[in-house]
Design a protein that fits this description.
The chain is of the alpha+beta class and 170 residues long. It contains 3 helices and 6 strands, in the order αβααβββββ. It has 2 domains: 93 residues, no CATH class; 65 residues, no CATH class.
């Protein structure tokens, strides 16, 4: 009975990990924490064959075989789509999280909504840069959309120009 609960818990964690992987890879929901992002990206890719083998050969549960089969197809298709669009190096770069360098504007009514200048460290290739409207769901998850800084942000937006420097660039 305990093995059944452990197996169900492992399967649910795997499905959650795959869901976060797909949302992050396609830019719907971004993962801010470096360790969490690396864990989800590498864990979902490495755990797929292990979870499939566990469910088919050890657990032999028909219901979980369908769920794990569907999520495994999602993980493989997502990985193939991203690698075909960006290349393998592009996929590896996308596993790095974006870091806030400057908060340009804050929303007057919603404290979790900001316009930020962000940078992404891509190792020897330098830095990627972007300006985005960020809505923080938690400290680890955010929803972003690209922003044109030539646009006039009036009304609800308050200009703050707060230097955050998460990359600690001198």
């Amino acid at each position: 009975m305990t093995v059944k609960y452990i197996g169900t818990t492992v399967n649910l964690i795997y499905i959650l990990m795959v869901a976060l992987f797909v949302l992050d890879v396609f830019g719907i929901l971004e993962i801010k924490g470096e360790f969490l992002k690396a864990f989800i990206h590498s864990g979902s890719l490495l755990a797929t064959p292990i979870i499939i083998a566990y469910n088919f050969f050890i657990r032999k549960s028909r219901r979980w075989n369908i769920w794990i089969g569907v999520t495994s197809v999602f993980i493989v298709l997502s990985f193939c789509i991203v690698v075909s669009q960006r290349g393998f190096l592009g996929y590896l770069i996308s596993t790095e999280s974006w870091n806030t360098q400057t908060v340009l504007y804050e929303h007057g009514h919603f404290g979790s909504k900001r316009i930020e200048f962000q940078m992404q460290d891509v190792g020897a290739l330098g830095y990627n840069k972007r300006c985005v409207s960020v809505t923080y769901i938690t400290n680890w998850f955010m929803i972003t959309e690209k922003v044109d800084l030539d646009k006039n942000f009036g009304g609800e937006w308050i200009k703050v120009d707060k230097n955050v420097n998460e990359l600690e660039i001198v």
